[in-house]
Amino acid sequence: MSVEHESTSQHVETYLVSAGRPERRAGSPVNTAVEFTSTYAADGDVSYARSGNPTWSSFEQALGGLEGGRALIHASGMGAISAALSLVGAGGTVVAPDQTYNGTYDLMRAFEEAGGTVVRVHATDTAGFLAALDGADLLWLESPTNPLMDVTELDVVLARARELGVTSVVDNTLATPLLSRPLTLGADVVVHSVTKYLSGHSDVVLGATVVPDTDRGRALGERVFRHRTLHGAIAGPMEVFLALRGLRTLGLRFERASANAAELAARLADHAGVARVRYPGSGAMLAIEVAGDAAAADRVCDATRVWLHSTSLGGVESQIERRRRHPSEPESVPVNLLRLSVGIEHVEDLWSDLDAALTRGLGQD
Length: 365
Fold this sequence. Notes:
The protein is an alpha/beta fold. The protein is built from twelve helices and 14 strands. It has helices at 12-18, 54-67, 77-85, 102-113, 126-132, 154-164, 176-179, 215-231, 237-247, 250-268, 294-303, 347-361; strands spanning 2-5, 8-11, 70-74, 93-97, 117-121, 138-142, 167-171, 189-193, 207-211, 274-278, 285-290, 308-309, 319-322, 337-341. The longest helix is centred in the C-terminal third of the chain and has 19 residues, at 250-268. The chain is globular and about 70 Å long. 47% of the residues are buried. The model has no long low-confidence stretch (mean pLDDT 95).
C-alpha cells in the first residue's frame, strides 16, 4: 500500500514514521510538541482549546493522509461514534448490521427510544442492505463486525448508498487503514476507536472521524466538528501525543499480530475444544466458539497465563474475552464465543497457553 504525502507516493510504513512531524529545519525538534494550553492569543486560527490544539493537528494530519481524507480527533471512540450518528436527525432511519460493537448497538437503541428507526441487516446479506437503503437517511457499517468477524461487501453497499444519497459511515477500527480504506470505496465518514490499533499500547482512550476532502466531505466534517465542540468531547494533548507515537509502529505491530492470528486460526480449526473459528481471512482479530457452554468459556479465559483476560483489543498484548458476559451484548452473539485480539508475542507462546487453557477449561486433560 502507498500513501500520497507531500506530493510523493510513499509506502505506508514510511508514511507512518514521517507523517505529522514538525517542519524540518536547522535545530528543529524531530517530534511534535505537547501543547498544554486552554486559550490562545487573539486573532489567530484558534482562540480556545475546545476548538483546536497543535498536537491534535499533527495526529489529524497523519491519520487523514492514511485514510485519504480529513481527520478529527475525539475524546473516545464512543465520542466519535456519537458525533457520526448525529448526522441523522431525530426521527430518521438508520440501516445497520444486526450485530455491531455493543457501544454502537446501545447508542442505536437509544436513538430508537427517542423516535428514530433502525433497520438491522445481517452483515453478510448484501441484497438485504441494498433493499433496506431505499428511504434511509444513514448507513452504518462495520467490516469485520465486532465480535462475530462477519465481512460486508463494502464496495457494493457503499456504491448503492451513494446512488441514493444516503450518508454512509464505516467503523474501520478492526480492519485499520492497512486493510481497508472505506473513503476510497465511497464512504462519507470513517470512524475509529484510536484506543485500539492506531495507538496500540492500551494506554489512551481516544476516537477519530475522517471525511473525504471534497465539498460534501468538508460539509459533513463541519457538522461533526460542531458536534464535538458543542458537546465538549475533546481529547487531552498528552493522550494525542501518545497516540501519534503509537501510530509510528502500526505497520510493524499489525503485520506481526496478523501473522500470529492467521497461524492461530489455522491451528484452532483442528482443536478438539473449538466448535467454530470465526476469522475473516486477514487482520489480527478472530473469535472462537468453544465446545462447551458459557461456564466452560469462562473457565478458558480464567486459565490463560500469557493471554490477558480483558475487555479491550488492538494492543501489543494478546487479549481474550467472552463477550456475552456483558449484559449489553446483543443476543445474536453466542454465549460460548470468545473474542481474541492477537498481539505481537511469539506465536508458539500464544498457542501453548491457549491450547492448555482450552484443555483445562473444557476438562479435557
